[in-house]
Design a protein that fits this description.
The protein is 98% helix and 0% strand.
Length: 86
């Protein structure tokens, strides 16, 4: 009889601990989800900022190349005019 009562008490103890464990697991899951979401958002913002910086650098280099090309074309046009006038 004692064994049965002790067994039932043990089962009741395990059942009550199981509920607390589930609650703790749910809380941990929510905390991890929030942390990961925050980390992902932070990484996304950093990546977008880096991408914008790279786009700006690329655009300025393209503009610089266009300007140099235009200058060289103008020089070539002047030389051509001078050679035609001679």
């Amino acid at each position: 009889m004692k064994k049965i009562i002790l067994s039932l008490a043990f089962v009741a103890l395990l059942a009550s601990c199981q509920d607390k464990t589930k609650e703790k697991l749910d809380e941990a899951k929510e905390a991890i989800t929030k942390e990961l979401t925050t980390s992902i958002d932070s990484a996304k913002i950093k990546a977008e900022a880096k991408l914008d910086t790279l786009k700006d650098k690329a655009n300025s280099k393209v503009d610089s190349i266009k300007l140099r090309s235009a200058e060289k074309i103008e020089e070539a046009a002047k030389k051509l005019k001078e050679s035609v006038n001679k």
